[in-house]
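Example S7 (structure tokens).
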């Protein structure tokens, strides 16, 4: 070929060789990046395969323990933990975290447990309201327990009130809208006389007498007297002329109903009948339309209804009161055929909500704006680890909730995250398959470029040799 043509051909081959080498270098870089990606995928896969998550023991399948992911809904649910413990979740201020439904039931009923239960579809009334006599007995027993808890036991009524019988007219058609009532009793000799409080125990109606005491004044003179309810706590005494005190025998001397002078260690005064007795109670005996006292006085007895409001200060007293209200209301609604929603009695559910309700009343409560969080394992665990939330369980020994932790609670375990591992396995395989496919394509491309490079290099060497021979011939001609 001609010199000019050979030179042009050589330049073309040189350019193609340069491009070939650049393409090979680019593919080599791509293969290197694939290798780096492969290392990264391997590390991610290893991390995923060692990933764990917190789960809670939910029961046993034969002898094999079963677990569920630790979520708010799972751990705070009724009977959702194998140990039977009831758990709650609190924020870092100590307020119990509840669902919006529980919060609404509490807020709309002003902290009334019976109404709270009603809005959740339950009742703590465990009586058979169709058994009238049995239910009435249960109602009286429930109220007696409550009254005794607030210092109004059946034989000790400082304010002159005692439960004699129930009226139900204080209820409206709406459940728990009102209070049950009980009767107080008063006695008088005639309708124009002042009424005096009377009481009732298993022996019937009685009037109280005042305790007589020996009194020494500033001059050293000694008297016998008593203090009325109005005088109690002051220096005023009601002095008795018909009672004396023997300092040697330390006994009181008085005249009994038979007119005899007798002595006793302790005596009581009945100012309305001007009687002294060794008995604190002056029982009234029914006699036709009247009641006759031990002194022979005839009394009219009148009853007056009073509401049974809550007067306690403790959680236990409140629980007694709420239960008595619940069974009284259930009995009343059945007796009057009052329309009300059908409520379910379940002892476990009632106790479950009672513990939550008491905690809400004692420490306050809070909710989460996004309730999907309550189903998320990662949300609860992250909040607990960050100290934003705290776990607690109900202790029957402490009679309250006791704090616990993820690592210390016997029902909570940290296990391999099998679902995350399966996902990681699938993702790893897919990504590695893609890398292997790309790597094969790069290998094919490199082989093709390498073959092309060899062919170009051979042609380059041949053209270059032709040019070299032509140059040599030209020099020989000119030198000749």
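Recovered sequence:
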């Amino acid at each position: 070929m001609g010199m000019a043509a050979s030179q042009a051909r050589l330049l073309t081959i040189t350019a193609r060789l340069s491009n070939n080498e650049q393409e090979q270098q680019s593919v080599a870089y791509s293969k290197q990046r694939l290798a780096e990606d492969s290392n990264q995928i391997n590390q991610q896969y290893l991390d995923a395969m060692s990933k764990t998550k917190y789960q809670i023991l939910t029961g046993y399948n034969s002898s094999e323990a079963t677990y569920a992911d630790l979520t708010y809904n799972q751990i705070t649910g009724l009977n959702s933990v194998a140990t039977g413990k009831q758990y709650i979740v609190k924020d870092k201020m100590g307020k119990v975290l509840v669902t919006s439904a529980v919060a609404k039931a509490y807020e709309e009923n002003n902290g009334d447990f019976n109404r709270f239960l009603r809005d959740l579809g339950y009742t703590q009334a465990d009586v058979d309201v169709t058994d009238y006599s049995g239910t009435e007995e249960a109602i009286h027993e429930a109220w007696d327990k409550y009254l005794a808890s607030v210092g109004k036991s059946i034989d000790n009524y400082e304010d002159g009130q005692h439960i004699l019988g129930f009226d139900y007219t204080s209820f409206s058609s709406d459940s728990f809208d009102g209070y049950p009532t009980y009767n107080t009793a008063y006695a008088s000799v005639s309708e124009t006389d002042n009424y005096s409080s009377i009481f009732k125990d298993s022996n019937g109606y009685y009037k109280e007498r005042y305790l007589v005491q020996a009194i020494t004044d500033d001059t050293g003179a000694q008297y016998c007297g008593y203090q009325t309810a109005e005088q109690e706590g002051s220096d005023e005494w009601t002095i008795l002329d018909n009672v004396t005190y023997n300092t040697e025998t330390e006994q009181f001397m008085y005249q009994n109903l038979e007119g005899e002078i007798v002595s006793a260690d302790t005596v009581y005064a009945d100012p309305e009948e001007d009687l002294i007795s060794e008995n604190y109670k002056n029982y009234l005996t029914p006699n036709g339309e009247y009641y006759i006292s031990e002194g022979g006085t005839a009394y009219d007895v009148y009853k007056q209804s009073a509401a049974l409001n809550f007067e306690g200060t403790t959680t236990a007293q409140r629980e007694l009161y709420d239960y008595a209200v619940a069974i009284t209301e259930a009995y009343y609604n059945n007796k009057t055929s009052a329309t009300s929603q059908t409520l379910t009695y379940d002892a476990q559910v009632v106790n479950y909500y009672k513990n939550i309700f008491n905690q809400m009343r004692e420490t306050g409560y809070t909710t989460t704006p996004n309730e999907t969080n309550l189903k998320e394992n990662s949300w609860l665990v992250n909040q607990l680890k960050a100290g934003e939330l705290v776990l607690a369980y109900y202790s029957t020994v402490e009679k309250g909730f006791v704090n616990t932790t993820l690592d210390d609670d016997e029902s909570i375990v940290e296990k391999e995250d099998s679902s995350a591992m399966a996902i990681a396995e699938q993702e790893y395989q897919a990504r590695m398959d893609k890398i292997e496919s790309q790597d094969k394509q790069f290998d094919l491309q490199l082989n093709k470029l390498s073959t092309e490079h060899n062919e170009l290099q051979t042609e380059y060497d041949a053209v270059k040799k032709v040019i070299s021979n032509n140059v040599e011939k030209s020099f020989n001609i000119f030198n000749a």
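Notes on this example. The radius of gyration is 48 Å.
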